[in-house]
Structures are given as C-alpha cells and as structure tokens.
UniProtKB/TrEMBL annotation:
Pfam families: Patatin. The active site is at residues 115, 258. Residues 80-274 form the PNPLA domain. This is Patatin. A motif (DGA/G) lies at residues 258-260. One of its GO terms (biological process) is lipid catabolic process. It comes from the Bacteria. A motif (GXSXG) lies at residues 113-117. Residues 1-20 form the signal peptide. A motif (GXGXXG) lies at residues 84-89. GO terms for molecular function: hydrolase activity. Keywords: Hydrolase, Lipid degradation, Lipid metabolism, Signal.
C-alpha cells in the first residue's frame, strides 16, 4: 500500500504541479550575478562562490596548485574530491575512518564535495578527530528517516519527500562550533568547496565554505547549512532550496538543487582536462577521488517501486557522469605528471543510493573502512 501511495503521489505531483503558484520575485541574470547570498560578501579576497564553468574558477584552480594553497607538512598538496551517491555516502565515512586507523591518511589541503559528498566534506576537512561524528551521521540512525513522503503536499510542491528531515540532519551536525573550526583551518590557507546547481542560470556553482565560515555570523551559519542541504537535494525527490539574496536593494530567492546535476564530483575544471601546465609551474600534488557508488554496470531485476526505480536511475546517471569526469581528471593528472587515485564501491556491492536503513549504510561503511585498512580501496 505504501508503495502504491508513493507511486500515485509522484505521478499526480508532476501532473498537478502547475496548480501550485510557485510565485517568486522577478530578477534577471545581471541581478543574479551581482547578488549577495544572505547579504554576505567576500572578506578575504576570494569569492564566496563561482560558476563551475566560469573562467574565474579555472584561474582559481591553477593559482591554488601553483602557489595559492600552502603545501602540507610533507611538502605535497593533497586534494580529495567526494562524489554524490545518496546513502552510499557511508562509504566515504568508512573510508576516512579506516584510513585514519592506518596512520597514513593525509591532511588534505583541498577538500571538495557534491551531494552526499558535500554533507561529508566539512568533517573530512576537519580531519580524523571528526571521524566518529561522521560515522554517527550515516550509521547512527539519524539518517534513517530522511525519506518521508510528502503525501498530499506533493501535489502542490516540487518534491515527493519532505525537506525537513534533511534540514534537521544538517542542523544537528553543522553548528557554530563546526563553523569556527572550519574558519580556523581556512585561515591556514586550506580550502573547502561544495557544489550546487542553480536552476535559474542552469549552471553549477562552487561555494567556498571556508570563506563563508570565516564571517562567523548567524547569516553565515544559515548560508553554510542551506548550501549543504541544496547540494544534497535530489530534484524531484526533495524540493529545491531557496537562498535569500539581494542586489542593490532588490531582494529575491535563488533556487538551488543537487550539485550532482551538473558535476559528479568537484575537481579539475573541464576546460583544463587536456591542458598541460608550463614546466615547473605546478607543485607536487596528489589527487584522490572518492566515488560513493559503483563505476561499472551491474545487472539487477529492478523492483517496480518508486524508491528502487529512482535509486536505480540515480545510480545509472551518476555512473555515466562519473566515468567521463574521472577520465578527464586522470588525463589532466597524467599530462602533468601528478599522482591520481580513486576509490569506489566494489562492483558486486548491492547497495542502493536511496536505502537509508541503518543496516544498509552500516554495511557500506564497513566496506569503505576495510578497503582503507587492507589497501584495496584505491584504484
């Protein structure tokens, strides 16, 4: 009966979506591009956000790897990108815990995240001291109730699941103390970025969470949380996140959804995939990518339920995008003689991106942890 209700809800919500007003303040691209999200402006010389396909982003990336980001204690710049993948983000949590236990986990100078990877990114950024908190978020039961159907409300909204559980999860783990910790690391030159997708401009957006955290205001905390929720809000499954902005007195709401719509993970800008840096301009760097899912197709007779169909579709969409983006990032690393490795769920894993049960996420967590300990996780 519950599956039937979900199916009818999804279909009717799409059919009747036009009944909802969806009224928003009118603004244009010029208003959006000059806007101040939550009234915040950059204070450190680095923009709070840039479009993923902007020339500025490519320039910022090159600057970081030339001289912009301080090297780690080992004289190497370590970069890690965390992908989307829904509940399979437990793989990242387990991988980080196991890697810490080996004593070989780097202190990453740059951490990026998309979707569930965005939710994990602040904890990975803050290091091994936050491993247990990250594990609890995925396997402690707090995420088990994320998929609560809207019911009749879906007819007049833009998602079949309620947004409150996801927001409550982020609010629970992202507080003022965490922002202060992120700001302290940002002051050392480290970088924390996550991606959302701006539906109005139809472009991906990279947000500098360190630049936001360093402002230390209630508005900064609200924006930090909203960006994380937006990055993990799968279109159609969850409503988009509306971010308050203003430009020269005009106040309006930007509409953001899952960063995975525009990129599976946030690493080398696409315009640089085939670019060779002049000899001697890039410092020693190691690239790591964590794929919260499988990279190869697997056969499965898919049950005809909303969760399984949606989960299976997300798996396929994510994998196709991941394969292309992995190839581009590896090409950049190989062309410029940089270290590159990625980790992913084993091909025989049966985990679904929308199975938020404690049992499933604990199993995925264990796969990540054991793979880090025995060294089989990296490819």
């Amino acid at each position: 009966m519950r599956a039937l209700v979900l199916s009818l809800t999804a279909c009717l919500a799409m059919a009747l979506g036009a009944c909802a007003s969806g009224a928003r303040t009118s603004f244009d691209l010029q208003d959006r591009d000059g806007a101040r999200p939550m009234g915040l402006v950059a204070r450190t010389g680095h923009p709070i956000r840039v479009y993923l396909d902007a020339e500025d982003r490519a320039a910022l990336f090159q600057q970081a790897f030339r001289e912009g980001v301080p090297l780690g204690p080992d004289g190497v710049l370590d970069f890690i990108a965390l992908s989307g993948g829904g509940s399979n983000g437990a793989f990242t949590a387990g991988l980080m815990k196991g890697w810490s236990e080996t004593g070989e986990r780097p202190d990453f100078e740059v951490v990026t995240g998309v979707s569930t990877g965005a939710l994990a990114a602040p904890f990975v950024f803050l290091g091994a001291d936050y491993d247990d908190e990250l594990a609890e978020a995925y396997t402690g039961g707090a995420a088990a109730g994320l998929l609560q159907p809207q019911g009749i409300g879906a007819f007049f909204g833009s998602g079949i699941y309620k947004p409150q559980p996801l927001r409550a999860l982020v609010d629970r783990y992202v507080d003022a103390a965490l922002l202060r910790a992120v700001a302290a690391e940002y002051a050392k030159g480290r970088v924390l970025l996550v991606a959302t997708t701006d539906l109005d401009s139809q472009r991906g957006v990279s947000w500098d969470l360190g630049a936001i955290a360093t402002q230390g205001t209630p508005e900064a905390l609200e924006l930090f949380r909203s960006v994380l929720v937006a990055s993990a809000s799968i279109p159609g499954a969850f409503p988009p996140v509306l971010i308050q902005s203003d430009n020269a007195g005009l106040q309006f709401e930007e509409m953001h959804v899952d960063g995975g719509v525009t990129t599976p993970f946030l690493a080398v800008p696409e315009t640089l995939w085939s670019f060779r840096e002049p000899s001697g301009t890039l410092r020693a760097a190691r690239f790591y990518v964590v794929i919260n899912g499988r990279t190869n197709p697997s056969f499965e007779i898919t049950r005809d339920t909303p969760q399984r169909v949606l989960g299976r579709s997300i798996d396929i969409l994510l994998r196709a995008s991941i394969i292309t983006t992995l190839a581009g990032n590896r090409a950049f690393a190989d062309t410029n003689d940089l270290f590159f490795r990625y980790a992913a769920l084993p091909d025989d894993s049966e985990a679904s991106a929308l199975d938020f049960s404690v049992e499933s996420m604990s199993a995925v967590y264990d796969i990540g942890r054991q793979g880090a300990i025995d060294g089989t996780a990296w490819r």
